[in-house]
Write a structure and sequence with these properties.
CATH superfamily of the largest domain: Tetratricopeptide repeat domain
Distance between the termini: 51 Å
Low-confidence stretches: 1-18
Mean pLDDT: 85
CATH class of the largest domain: Mainly Alpha
Order of helices and strands: HHHHHHHHEEEEEEE
CATH topology of the largest domain: Serine Threonine Protein Phosphatase 5, Tetratricopeptide repeat
Shape: globular
Number of domains: 3
Strand order of the largest sheet: 6-5-4-1-7
Number of helices: 8
Largest sheet: 5 strands, antiparallel
Strand content: 5-15%
């Protein structure tokens, strides 16, 4: 009976390990194909990994590089953006994203950003979701530990300073919730997309024959405000809005 249970345990553990090993194989095979300049093969291998639910900044970054090499600018930027979303402080990802954006035909004047918004984004991006979560956990543990020590031990003259430190740690833990939630929202935000078609006419209404407002080109980043059947309402960074076919873009 014990041998049977051991066999079940080994099988249950080996299945996910084997699956992970297979995905690592496809990832490495994609890397090898990329080094051999077989970019279409590299794309297929990276897509296999993603289709099996393994998402990482490395895969999106490598996939973006492969798409860039094949001249698929929109898909390159799409995957650089996905990599940047997961790892916003990575210099290589940021550099390649800027480099690819230089090839986008649309030149949109970006309105100046209020300095408080810029500082807020820098603060939130300072750590990953896991990093902010670890910091929050540490602060909570320290607060609880200090509270327990204060209750168990007679600190005498040190009681008041200990309470002050405990309150500061507790307040810091509460304040850490804000960047944690904001960072999580940034990571899971699916309101932005990249234009994948060579060009797309933005219309005043979600129907053919409607008034043409402007044209967006491959690689342009847009915010998706609404959807109506096969149409998506988009907004450019300069505030222009219009409807385009949903098939002309893909959500980041």
């Amino acid at each position: 009976m014990r041998q049977f249970l051991t066999m079940i345990l080994v099988i249950s553990l080996s299945v996910p390990l084997a699956a992970e090993s297979a995905l690592d194989y496809h990832f490495q095979k994609g890397n090898d194909a990329y080094l051999l300049e077989q970019y279409d093969e590299a794309i297929r291998e990276y897509q296999i990994v993603l289709q099996n639910g393994q998402e990482s900044a490395e895969i999106y970054y490598n996939l973006g590089n492969a798409y860039y090499k094949t001249g698929q600018l929109g898909r390159a930027i799409l995957n650089y953006e996905r990599a940047h979303r997961l790892r916003p402080k990575d210099e290589n990802i940021a550099f390649n994203l800027r480099l690819a954006n230089l090839r986008v035909r649309d030149r949109i004047d970006i309105p100046p950003e209020f300095f408080l918004f810029r500082w807020n984004r820098a603060l939130v991006s300072a750590l990953s979701v896991a990093g902010w979560a670890r910091l929050l956990t540490l602060l909570i543990v320290l607060t609880c530990l200090l509270f327990a020590l204060r209750q168990l031990l007679n600190l005498g003259i040190l009681s008041r300073p200990a309470r002050s430190v405990m309150l500061i740690l507790g307040l810091a833990a509460l304040l850490t919730l804000y960047p944690l939630l904001q960072r999580y929202a940034m990571t899971t935000n699916r309101d932005y997309g990249i234009i994948l078609s060579d060009s797309s006419k933005s219309l005043a209404a979600p129907q053919e024959g409607s008034t043409e407002l402007f044209i967006v080109h491959e690689g342009t980043k847009v915010q998706v405000l609404d959807q109506d059947n096969d149409w998506s309402k988009i907004e450019l960074i300069d505030g222009k809005q219009g409807w385009i076919p949903s098939g002309d873009l893909e959500i980041i």
